[in-house]
Design a protein that fits this description.
CATH topology of the largest domain: Tetracycline Repressor, domain 2
CATH architecture of the largest domain: Orthogonal Bundle
Structural class: mainly alpha
Largest sheet: none
Shape: elongated
Distance between the termini: 64 Å
Strand content: under 5%
Radius of gyration: 20 Å
Number of helices: 12
CATH superfamily of the largest domain: Tetracycline Repressor, domain 2
Helix content: over 70%
Length: 217
């Protein structure tokens, strides 16, 4: 099979119109993520994003509407990538302790991810000036994650595996316990390097406390 040159690899004209549109949209979102994290929301230049991604400002506006629409797409994409790593449907068939350990390990790996830390720093820096960005993130990322876990917990309550009065609050508590002080350290720019064994110990402790607190009487 012949090896494509860089020019050929970047040429999207070989794809059907719909595929070209999706590829172009993906390139803009990737470039926007880089620029937003580097420059902040207000200082981010749409022209710089277009220069990195290719295409034109007209295409960017057509696909995303404006800067806020583009930021929304960035957060939505990142949230989808992170949340899709947890298959709650599959986990419903597992006992709570093993399911919560799997959920916890995946969530904790997100918490200490440098990219997630960078996005959180971006939001903290811009939230006061642009409250709408805060609401976008809370709706697309935080709220979805809590609701997904709450739905799982409700399924376990229905099976009488757990005794929880308010699954949303319980889900919030569990995710809060998983953050510990590592979340703030990551947001402050520290690279959190923990071995898999250390991560498992941290998460297992949170799971044990949760299970003990909500075990059926």
């Amino acid at each position: 099979m012949p090896i494509k040159t860089q020019r050929e690899s970047n040429d999207i004209t070989q794809y059907a119109p719909r595929e070209r549109g999706l590829i172009r949209r993906d390139k803009i979102i990737q470039a926007a993520t880089t620029v937003f994290v580097k420059s902040g929301y207000e200082a981010a230049s749409l022209q710089e994003i277009v220069s990195i991604a290719g295409g034109s400002l007209a295409t960017l506006y057509r696909l995303f509407g404006n800067k806020e629409g583009l930021f929304y797409a960035v957060i939505e994409r990142k949230s989808d990538q992170l949340l899709s790593e947890i298959d709650y449907g599959h986990l419903q068939n597992k006992p709570p302790e093993s399911a919560l350990l799997e959920i916890g390990l995946r969530f904790f790996s997100m918490v200490i991810s440098p990219e997630v830390g960078a996005i959180h720093r971006l939001l903290i820096g811009e939230a006061v000036r642009t409250p709408r960005l805060r609401e976008i993130f809370l709706t697309l990322a935080t709220e979805r994650a809590i609701r997904n876990l709450a739905d799982y917990l409700q399924g376990q309550v229905d099976k009488q595996q757990l005794d929880i009065q308010n699954c949303y609050i319980a889900a919030s508590h569990f995710m809060g316990a998983l953050k510990g002080n590592y979340h703030i350290r990551c947001m402050l720019g520290e690279v959190v390097n923990l071995s898999l064994a250390q991560q498992e110990e941290f998460v297992a402790t949170a799971v044990a406390m949760f299970i003990n607190g909500y075990a059926p009487s």
